[in-house]
Automatic annotation (TrEMBL), chain A:
It is a multi-pass membrane protein. This is ABC transporter permease. Pfam families: BPD_transp_1. Belongs to the binding-protein-dependent transport system permease family. One of its GO terms (biological process) is glycine betaine transport. Keywords: Membrane, Transmembrane, Transmembrane helix, Transport. It comes from Planococcus halotolerans. The keyword Signal does not apply. GO terms for cellular component: plasma membrane. PANTHER family: GLYCINE BETAINE/L-PROLINE TRANSPORT SYSTEM PERMEASE PROTEIN PROW, OSMOPROTECTANT IMPORT PERMEASE PROTEIN OSMW.
Amino acid sequence: MRNFFDTLVSRQDMIQDAFLEHIYLSFVAVAIGIAIALPTGIIIARYRRYAEPVIGVTAIFQTIPSLALFGFLVPILGIGSPTALIALIIYALLPILRNTYTGITGVDGSTIEAGRGMGMTRTQILRQIELPLALPFIMAGIRTATVLTVGIATLATFVGAGGLGDIIYRGLQSYNNALVLAGALPVALLAIGFDLILKWIEKRATPKGLKN
Amino acid sequence: MIRFERVTKRFPDGTEALKDVSVVFPTHKLTVVIGPSGCGKTTLMRMVNKLETPTEGDISIDEESITGLEEVKLRRSIGYVIQRIGLFPHMTIEDNVSLVPRLLEWDKEKTAARVEELLKLVGLEPEVYKKRYPLELSGGQQQRVGVVRALAGDPNIILMDEPFSALDPISREQLQDDLRTLQQEIQKTIVFVTHDMDEALKIADMVVVMRDGKIEQAGSPQELINEPANDFVRSFIGLDRINRQRTFGERKLEEFLSVFGMEPAGEALRISGGTTIDEAFSKLESSGYSNLEIVDDGRVLAYASDRDLVKAALRKEEVEKV
């Protein structure tokens, strides 16, 4: 235990850098993941016959073991953060896409029918009815994607993208358990922290009238 | 006035929901469209605000065909009340009611005043209910909000699709009464779809009875009860209801043949079996006879003395044949 605290103090700078790198990687990956998956989810909810194939493709990506995916990408894209980011984005897509789709298609048909009958345009129905009612689902998807990404980002070290994986890897190579722990613990804390924050946002995002 | 002119609706799978239907919904009247499920009544109503478009034929509002009108604009000018959960659960009562005014871009004060006015109209205190959410209200209160939401944009026409069918019997009756009172005040052209005959007879100015995409009869509730156009209409209205709605005097002599005898009890007044009891009595009185010879096409059906008529009055509940 003392060994662990000593390591924390002596490697403070390195851990701090890796920690920030890790946040950067996860955050950017999830942000881009949202930017891609959210509109795609909205589109496939409207044109439902494309839903199966699109979700299917992202599901296949999801089944590739993460280490293998990093391995595939290196020969194509070389090493460095872009490679790591692309892999992480691919993993973030499925939960967000699927939850967006499920959330929107799950909105009660009679609610939409009422909006249509009162003269709302498709865009108005999407923005004022479908998205607010699907928001809790969408947020849950983003939460899953974030926790997933924080975990997988430890593997970014193998493509030279840094992050807390660096610390863990270094610890493993030098049989330094304290160092492994100094890398793993922040990852866990980061995942839990993100999860709590997003849980809070998810709660806030639930439309007031639906809370009971 | 909404006019359907030889309207046919064929769905892509080939089923015909409406077959060559022509009907007029009069202005400022509450017209109920009724029929068994699958008869096309909802399709008929949904055509008025272009939620469905006719395959053949034309629909016009105040003599202007709606074919060329822009859907969204047309719908904003027509109130729409939907069965069950038409309210948006994530919006407050105020936001729900003010939806159409906001779509029409009314200014804020006008919209707010309209919401207050409408909530008061159906007995919901604005200060109490405005900021609440639909799920915090009872079913009856929710549907009241549903009704006034349809009135918000001050439309001339209101479409109501089985609006009270999901409510418990007490709230339903209450809302039917309220709708009648409300209609006297607001005088809108209302198209009301239901499958509940009691509801139809209670609230309608005019009833349109449908079956298999066709109109079987259109007329006032009284006309339907007194002169059902055919067996289907008669059985759809139901014998009980017909009898309940008519007094003894409004029924016809031929309904009571089983009470009357075939033996003449003296000199008799010749009268048609289709004559009502009331008419028969007044004819007896003015003629001075005390017996009736009931005929149909010259054939004697029965003889009835005034005593037989009293018997008929006493047994009227038992007499089944109409």
